[in-house]
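Obj: model holo form, ligand = flavin mononucleotide.
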Amino acid sequence: MTDRLIIEGLMSTVGPGNVVHVTAMGAHVDRADDRVMELRPFFPSTTWDNLYGTRRGVFHMTDDMLQFARIVMRSEQPRANWVTVDGKLFPVVEGACRWWALEATSFSDEGGRGRIAARVVSYREERPFIGLHRARHAVLEAAILATRTHILSAGEIRRQLANVAPWVDKTGGRSERIAFAELSEYIERRLRGPSNPPDACLDSRQSGASNAGM
Ligand SMILES: Cc1cc2nc3c(=O)[nH]c(=O)nc-3n(C[C@H](O)[C@H](O)[C@H](O)COP(=O)(O)O)c2cc1C
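Output (holo structure tokens):
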């Protein structure tokens, strides 16, 4: 029996002109084999384009949810340092707990979503992970909702946000409170924008989204 998980983290890739792109992404990992990972970027996405173009990227695990939230909202461009592995440069985001330098080995398109198999070519633990934390988990859920305002109804998003908000009040520190507040404002702005679908047309798209495996 396989023991596969999706770990949520930050993915950095390199675009034309060596421009570093960082985005939130899930990595599919098999606990029986830590030499490989799989990524599932949607189309279109810079992550797919960059990985297809260079075959190189870095997946990061972090507990800094303020940085994570701001990367999702594109309000912060994180600093990245180049690390050389086998003569190739990989962009490592500053502040992450752990990172895995990846070399993409195969690409396929599965119904509008990419599937990229990757080999781990280097790995490093930079600092300890703080541990399980409900407020940080709430920020993670809010970050996912922030990237789904075009898929889910405003009502569903507000309901899900309200469910996790008490975790921030009960267990959060300053940075979790700021992250959650900024994400909540960002989500509201997007929900009031033109691209959010009305509640009535969402049932089928919602079930597709919940299978999306982020
Ligand atoms: C926790 C989390 C996990 C995500 N996982 C994925 C993923 O597996 N695939 C994907 O395409 N987008 C994922 N997203 C959404 C991307 O961050 C977002 O769609 C982004 O715009 C990807 O496009 P880009 O490569 O052009 O930045 C995730 C977002 C969050 C907050």
